Amino acid sequence: MRLKVITPLAMEVDRPVRRIVAEGPHGRFGMWPGHIDFVSALVPGILLYEAEDGAERFVAINSGTLVKCGDDVRVAVRGAVEGDDLGNLRKRVEAEFRQHDEAERDARAALARLEASMVRRFRDLGANLP
Length: 130
Prior knowledge:
By secondary structure, the protein is an alpha+beta fold. The chain has one helix spanning 86-127, and strands spanning 2-6, 11-24, 27-31, 38-42, 45-51, 56-61, 64-69, 72-77, 80-83. The mean pLDDT is 88.
């Protein structure tokens, strides 16, 4: 099988694999070569795959969709972080979440300033009407 993990910004994983373990809304499931074609929503968590050399690797994913068609397994997610050690992967994911939280906080603050400015301008415009 060929696994492709795709985010809006990049192709995070594109390699042949022996097996995949993922988690959908109704629990974990596994896929091996020859598995029937399949579509599933994915919940935030860890996608595990076994590379052709037998090494297990992990991909922390945000919610998304898995589609298996023939030998291709495509996983489309909002965010993904790959690693081979769960401890290090956890640290990387936490750092990335912190970075995203700070960016969201900054964006919310900018939006609040914009809204306040707009309200002031409408108020000033209304005060100038006869």
